[in-house]
TrEMBL record, chain A:
Keywords: Cell outer membrane, Membrane, Receptor, Signal, TonB box, Transmembrane, Transmembrane beta strand, Transport. Residues 257-771 form the TonB-dependent receptor-like beta-barrel domain. The keyword Signal applies. PANTHER family: HEMOGLOBIN AND HEMOGLOBIN-HAPTOGLOBIN-BINDING PROTEIN 1-RELATED, TONB-DEPENDENT OUTER MEMBRANE RECEPTOR. Pfam families: Plug (PF07715), TonB_dep_Rec_b-barrel (PF00593). Its main location: membrane. Belongs to the TonB-dependent receptor family. GO terms for cellular component: cell outer membrane. SUPFAM superfamilies: Porins (SSF56935). It comes from Plebeiibacterium sediminum. InterPro entries: Beta-barrel_TonB, Beta-barrel_TonB_sf, Plug_dom, Plug_dom_sf, TonB-dep_rcpt-like. Residues 86-203 form the TonB-dependent receptor plug domain. This is TonB-dependent receptor. It is a multi-pass membrane protein.
Length: 797, 167
């Protein structure tokens, strides 16, 4: 039986080859099967041009293509020049658009769940906390704002989109949609030497698609589903000639929260807005709020914008790319002003322009961002007109084994609240304030041999606040054992910049008539704010043990210092003639002795198991600890200051009152004011673990392509329990045994997407995020995050 | 039994698909030679193609060598461990697995009339004359006139226009 079939097969092959030898077929009419039947001898009858056509007919082997797409990526953010990701001497990940689409991520933040070392926790539908490796919540036992990630620099096509108001990234204000992205490049570890301040824990560079000759004229992506979620974008792009291309994109994202309730910290309860307002009227938490606290408490996120792109390539020596856009966004999320509810509405609208160019070897980037930013709709004074200008210029000098990239950069940022307050004094800054910095930098890339590489990136940055130069550096060495194994080591230093609130806070928080123990809190800036500095040492090993497998291992240790936070300077109580008192707490950005240490390891693996099955996995383990932490909250320090003079104040007023009402002996009138600048002593300082970031998290995803048309992806994402230690853990104003605390349980969520390609123009899909509807909180005091179920399509023409 | 046979055919087909790349690379290389002019045209009786290390392209090239000629000379394919074994190669191929050694190869063949073909991102920037790449899932080649002419070779404009020129 076998022989019969084999004989028939051999006969078939033989007869086909005889037939093929007899005639050289026309390449314009030959079929793929016919080409596949040919042997090399037959094919050698064709000339090069014909061979290329035949190759097009056959197509590359799918598996080779997959190796190329998934395991042989390029990256530019790690060195500012395009290089093989495998050769990068830094901890680097590139997430392609195809991987993002296949995963089904509904936002850029969610897509980052695929990147090793990044942990994502959702606060409300579509609004996230994003951290690279961790090390946040410094200082602990304070406001939630210090748990925000202020140490990652996010860029769009190299343009920094950092929030200089209080540091961090306002993700909903990024003027770009997933559909516009070509890839996301992530560099973990201090990178200020390449990208300037705030690239402390790393850099996330969102890179948009170029318009090429094969770019679809029209592309559109849409999905909609539960929680009134609508996410879509449409682009029209065209390459008009080899020299000029242009395009325009519109995007929209709109989502409801899973609940319309907001959390009241002091009652430890979730309330509807009406319930909350009723309770506030009795409890007197906060009386000086604007009427319209939220546009709509159900709405988690609304974002829409338009972008325009143009590229002009005059010749090899001159090319320019211009992009500009307008964005309108708002989100209900945390966290400016934690109390009495951490839920804030942020609003943002404005435009940006970004010009990049290669001009006779010089790389130029010039950009501006002009946005009106409402950081906290609840209170007057938090509306700022913001302007940001960046310009950078560098040049790549190439020698035999050495390349040098010297560069210059300048940045200025302005915040102005004057047009949004009735009187000077009502605002947060009460004026137009500015932060400026400029830098000189150089990056040396030396290859003494084919296997060995040393990189030194140095940057010295001059700031106006504080008025000083701050150097940063990155030294790396890598040894390519062979083509499939690379060892590398990094020693680097980066720093935060000053943020507007650190330098220019000038705000009086009116608490008169509320249940608070003070009548006002004054927030002041520091004339010489300290800028956090991190030193990191890292070793990495990248290996390709088989052609279809790429493994990346990185072990890191970092040490940070020079933190600052809003802490009490003094408390003062003024006594009026009628013996009424008015107490003000004066706080300012004070330097802290606290230091942070962290060590950890990330491992990632990308594997092409077969043409039909792809695997992508990563995990991170980390431990953080702090030393010299003042384990007292702002309120506790204020309480200790008050305690220094309260007994005398009470005594003086009581005695004088008894005297003037004829109930007691003579007593002097109380002083006009009593105050204390007491600062806690050494006994209040502690060393402890920082558990604000889970010790473990990771992702495992499979993509299965049973046919050319069908594509199924499933991703499991897990993070371990964590403990975000904030001032609310020690607050005496909350119930003794609160239900909601900083202790958050570990969570596993499963995401799945099934995509069906109807033809080359249109695909349809169903997409389930957290398909098992594991409905627990991911972030302290925020929403329970359940399942999100969507359906949609991708279209291109 | 049918099942086994189907599996066998599928294995054959998948092997032939992965083998396809090597076959086309060999065919490309054979055709490159038609558009290149070597100065020492008649000084050698054989056309020597050197391949650095073991690679699937070697058997494909040997199949071609058994029936074809380049510049009317029989083709000799040498798979070499050291460069000196192929010091008189007219065409030298550096497979992807050896692509870390482009620098070594270009300096070894410096001044010699050898067409260096590689398969590495940015291979031309490191000195190779022609470099295979995968673009949009298709195999293409980059070509650098300067790197060809620096080896005293002349290149037909057609070869450049069919590839992706790198300057």
């Amino acid at each position: 039986m076998i022989n019969k079939y084999l004989y028939a097969l051999i006969l078939l092959i033989f007869s086909v080859s005889i037939y093929a030898q007899e005639s050289k077929k026309d390449v314009n009419s030959i079929s793929r099967e016919e080409v596949l039947q040919m042997n090399i001898e037959e094919l050698s009858a064709y000339d090069l041009e014909e061979i290329m056509k035949l190759m097009d007919i056959v197509g590359a082997s799918t598996i080779e293509e997959l190796y190329e797409l998934l395991l042989n990526k390029d990256v530019t953010s790690a060195s500012k020049s395009e290089e093989s990701l495998f050769d990068s001497s830094l901890s680097t990940t590139v997430l392609s658009y195809e991987e993002i689409v296949s995963n089904g991520a509904t936002s850029i933040e969610e897509a980052l769940k695929l990147v090793p070392g990044i942990i994502i926790r959702e606060k409300t539908n579509g609004n996230y906390d994003v951290q690279i490796r961790g090390g946040q919540n410094m200082p602990m036992n304070n406001m939630l704002i210090y748990a925000e990630n202020t140490t990652t620099l996010v860029m769009i096509d190299g343009r920094p989109v950092f929030n200089y108001g209080m540091g961090g990234i306002l993700w909903e204000t990024l003027p770009v949609s997933l559909g516009e992205l070509d890839r996301i490049e992530v560099v973990r570890g201090p990178s200020s030497a390449l990208y300037g301040p705030n690239a402390v824990n790393g850099v996330i560079n969102l890179i948009t698609k170029e318009t090429k000759s094969d770019t679809p004229l029209v592309s559109a992506n849409f999905q909609g589903g539960t929680l009134n979620t609508i996410i879509g974008d449409v682009s029209v792009k065209k390459q008009f000639s080899n020299k000029f291309s242009a395009g325009v994109s519109y995007y929209l994202e709109s989502r409801n929260r899973g609940s319309e309730k907001i959390y009241a910290i002091y009652d430890d309860q979730y309330y509807t807005l009406d319930e909350y307002n009723d309770r506030n009227a009795v409890a007197l938490w906060d009386l000086h709020i604007e009427n319209d606290v939220y546009n709509d408490p159900k709405r988690g996120k609304e974002k829409q914008g338009i972008n325009a792109y143009a590229t002009y390539n005059a010749n090899d020596d001159l090319s320019l790319q211009l992009s500009t856009g307008y964005l309108d966004a708002n989100a209900i999320t945390s966290t400016i002003g934690d109390t009495p509810s951490p839920y804030n509405q942020r609003i943002s609208y404005g435009y940006y322009t970004n010009l990049t160019g290669n001009i006779y070897g010089f790389n130029l980037q010039a950009c501006l961002n002009n946005t009106l930013q409402v950081f906290n709709k609840k209170h007057i004074g938090w509306t700022q007109e913001t302007e940001q200008y960046n310009i950078s210029l560098d040049y790549l000098l190439k020698f035999n084994k050495l390349s040098i990239r010297p560069g210059l950069s300048y940045q200025s940022i302005y915040y102005d609240d004057r047009d949004h307050i009735e009187n000077i004094g009502d605002g947060y800054f009460n004026g137009r304030v500015s932060l400026k910095n400029y830098a000189v930098s150089a990056r040396f890339d030396y290859h003494p041999t084919d296997k060995l590489r040393f990189v030194a990136a140095l940057r010295d940055e001059k700031y106006n606040k504080p008025d000083k130069w701050q150097p940063s550096f990155q030294f790396t060495g890598s040894y390519k054992i062979n083509d499939n194994n690379l060892l590398r080591a990094v020693y680097s230093r980066a720093n935060q910049s000053t943020f507007m609130i650190n330098a220019f806070s000038n705000y009086t928080w009116n608490l008169e008539g509320t249940s608070n123990s003070v009548d006002a809190v004054h927030f002041g800036g520091s004339a010489k704010p300290s800028m956090m500095i991190q030193d990191m040492f890292e070793i990495g090993y990248r290996t390709r043990p088989a052609k279809n497998l790429l493994i990346d291992i990185e072990a890191f240790y970092n040490k940070s210092k020079d933190y600052s936070a809003l802490m009490p300077d003094s408390m003062r109580t003024n006594v009026a003639a009628n013996l009424s008192t008015y107490t003000t707490l004066y706080t300012s950005y004070r330097d802290l002795d606290i230091k942070s240490e962290q060590y950890g390891i990330s491992v990632s693996a990308d594997m092409v198991l077969s043409e039909k099955l792809l695997l992508k996995a990563h995990f991170t383990y980390q431990q953080s600890k702090v030393t010299d932490l003042l384990d007292l909250s702002r309120n506790q320090v204020a309480g200790l200051q008050g305690a220094q003079y309260q007994p005398a104040l009470t005594n003086d007023i009581t005695n004088y009152y008894l005297y003037i009402t004829g109930q007691g002996p003579y007593a002097d009138a109380p002083n006009a004011s009593y105050s204390s600048g007491y600062q806690p002593g050494e006994s209040y300082y502690k060393d402890m673990d920082n558990e604000a970031i889970p010790s473990f998290w990771g992702s495992l995803s499979f993509t299965y392509k049973p046919t050319d048309k069908l594509d199924i992806t499933a991703q499991g994402y897990y993070y371990d329990k964590y403990y975000l230690y904030s001032q609310y853990e020690t607050s005496s104003n909350r119930p003794a045994d609160p239900k909601y605390t900083g202790h958050i349980d570990g969570k596993f969520s499963l995401n799945a997407k099934v995509n069906y390609k109807i033809n080359n123009n249109i695909s349809v899909f169903v997409n389930a995020r957290n398909v098992l509807n594991n409905d627990t909180q991911e972030y302290v005091f925020m929403d329970k995050i359940g399942g999100l179920y969507l359906a949609g399509f991708n279209f291109k023409l | 039994m049918k099942k086994k046979l189907t599996v066998l055919i599928m294995i054959c087909m998948s092997l032939s698909l992965t083998g396809q790349q090597s076959m086309f690379k060999a065919l490309f290389m054979f055709n490159f030679a038609k558009y290149i002019e070597w100065p020492n045209h008649s000084s050698q009786n054989e056309f020597i193609i050197g391949v650095y290390g073991h690679d699937d392209i070697v058997p494909e090239l040997k199949k071609l060598a058994s029936t074809k000629k380049i510049n009317n000379k029989p083709i000799v394919v040498k798979s070499v461990k050291t460069l000196s074994e192929a010091s008189n190669a007219q065409l030298f191929y550096i497979p992807e697995s050896k692509s870390g050694n482009i620098g070594e190869v270009t300096s070894f063949f410096k001044g010699k009339s050898t067409l260096i073909v590689s398969e590495k991102k940015g291979g031309c920037a490191e000195g190779s004359a022609i470099n295979y790449i995968l673009q949009g899932g298709k195999m293409k080649y980059e070509i650098c006139r300067g790197n060809i002419e620096s080896h005293q070779l002349k290149v037909d404009q057609k070869l450049i226009s069919l590839g992706i020129e790198v300057k």
